[in-house]
Amino acid sequence: MIDLFRKNRAFFLTYLVALVGVGILQLIYTKEELIRWVNSYNAPWADVFFDNATYLGDGAFSFIIIAILFIRSKWMGILASGSFAISGLLSIFLKRVVFPHNLRPLKYFEHSDWEYHVLKGLDIHSYNSFPSGHTITAFAVFSLLAMLDERKGRGWALALLAILVGYSRVYLFQHFVEDVYAGSIVGTLSTLLVFYYFNLWRERRRLKERTESMGDL
């Protein structure tokens, strides 16, 4: 496991800096103050940008990644399918079973006199806010791509893409910061564990096949 972190340090160090930084902000400020701050920095170009960037955390995007990985390698496709299936099931379980009544920002501030910024025509949900499903998917996808990528130096860019999706969920008034924070942890850990144990299983299988082939000589 340590070797896995070392090989992918560009991704994990970038993510760790963001995790610690946002964690400190949550200790200093309330979730209401944080979303007010994010919501106050809006612009027409940002509305368009984040409205499209958030789809990198959509389930359809993860299916596209699975299809591409299957084309490249059968084991990569199987690994991606397992990783995204587990992260998706965790998302559903946490949102609908453990935290079913957590309010989304729009419902939370329903009776507030705060004039918040929302995109016109955007479908914003009211419940199942914690954790952010899009963020879980984004971190599951991009952490997996970072670990599969032979060019480890660009792992930081993949981490930033995942972080971008998380920020988009707050910008679009779909989630609080705490929702995307938890989502990033769930997505990353689920992929990390699946990747580690899947490769451990493959290595043991190879060793067993090698031993059996030597025994037949």
Automatic annotation (TrEMBL):
The chain crosses the membrane at residues 12-29, 49-71, 78-99, 129-148, 155-174, 180-200. It is found in: Cell membrane. Gene3D superfamilies: Phosphatidic acid phosphatase type 2/haloperoxidase. It comes from the Bacteria. It holds the Pfam family PAP2. Its main location: membrane. The keyword Heme does not apply. Residues 76-195 form the Phosphatidic acid phosphatase type 2/haloperoxidase domain. It is a multi-pass membrane protein. InterPro entries: PAP2/HPO, PAP2/HPO_sf. Keywords: Cell membrane, Hydrolase, Membrane, Transmembrane, Transmembrane helix. This is Phosphatase PAP2 family protein. It comes from Nibrella saemangeumensis.
